[in-house]
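Sample entry as discussed:
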Amino acid sequence: TEYPARYDPGRVGEARAAMFSAMLDRVARLKPAARVLDIGCGGGQLLQSATSPEWSPFGVDLSRDACAVSAASGVPAVQADAAALPQRDACMDVVFLLNILDHAADPFRVIREARRVLAPGGLLVIRVPNAAFHRAWVRGWSARGLRARWRGWDRLPMLHLYAFPAAGLRRLARRGGFHVLEVRNSALAADAGDGGPLIRLLQRTLVGGARALERLSGKRILAGPSIELVARRPG
């Protein structure tokens, strides 16, 4: 009830919309025709961005207001918990969990529930804040002492109920019965347009450095603020 009042489910920034489109394009190449479920769908903007005309979109969200916005936009959505989905077994081809697992009381149960509703060969797509990145920022701001706390800088890192580095996210998916296809840095979803030139420069530097490390290490070093995983449910 509080989250939709603070963050309008009917609005999404340009950076987040671009992240949605890039992610959807990659998944559509693997599943050009699919029944797609977005868990934590908000206002349905992710599946509104779907470029494949063969996709059938569905949404689930804890917020009744968000479900109403999603349905009005053309993406049918129902109010439900990520750990207790109303869908029947093996009825979906793609399941998205974008910035959900780090808020969940039981991430493993959510993963198993996603596996239940996925058909054999179906894809699971996860996006979470990268714990390796945000832990470093916590240490950095903490070292600056009271000045950082007065300015609220120590609250900038995104550490919620759970914090996943790449290796931990990969292990969780494997424990949940998935075959991991890829773990990579995720595109930024926060717009820096209102932060001034210094913030935009910092953002570009972080993104460029993370991409270079990812490429040079063969995706073994993921230093971006968020990471995403694509996994397949075995047949």
